Amino acid sequence: MISSTEIIFRLVLASILGGLIGLERESNNRPAGFRTHILVTAGAALIMLISMYGFNGFGVNGSGGEPARLAAQVVSGIGFLGAGTILRQGNCIHGLTTAASLWVCGCIGLAIGNGYYLGGLVTAGIVLFSLISLGLFEKTVFKDKYKTLHVICCERPGLIGEIGTLLGQYDITIKYIKMSPFEEYKDNNLHIDITVKVPIHFSPEILFTSIGKIEGIKSVNWEG
After folding, report:
1. Was domain 146-222 assigned CATH 3.30.750.24?
2. Which of 85, 148, 154, 188 has the most C-beta neighbours closer than 10 Å?
3. Which parts of the chain span the membrane according to its record (predicted)?
4. How far lies 174's CA from each of 15, 22, 193, in Å?
5. What's the whole-model pTM score?
């Protein structure tokens, strides 16, 4: 049986790694963010600890049984949670990356709970690199397909949903959304940056006209 200090260390380390991945998802307004990833990673680490040390004294000759049997259920169980982040709109599917990040956080939690620190830390580093750096690389390589839409608007309930619905009608896929206060106007005004993937044949003039008709929109234009 490991010490109480080691148990606490593993749980805290797993939570930190899951939180780092969750922060990246939270910063991009994904359905599962900071707290969800922490809960998944810490829970997986706890289950790994329970499966390894929680049944000592039970089973044949007090061996506690097979540690991998309980932990193995985490890998498949996370799939149900990840499925809740996947949405389909027409021919587009959203949330697969977030679902994958939840699944891999469960795996990282199992590794840390098992004391396999190298594997857990390296995997967390690869995940963060993939989500942050490769996202920028993807936008650079496919810069003709990805554009950033700048919207200045008056904040009100349901505004983001109306913009998203309108973009969906033009088969435009939203990749990232960033919102910040816009100081040049009065209070309750937002500057929204929406990175989108546009279809090959698409008219920005018609899109701008349609967005401009939404209540609260003050201006809209492409980056640059």
Report:
1. no
2. 85
3. 7-24, 36-55, 93-112, 118-137
4. 29, 19, 11
5. 0.62
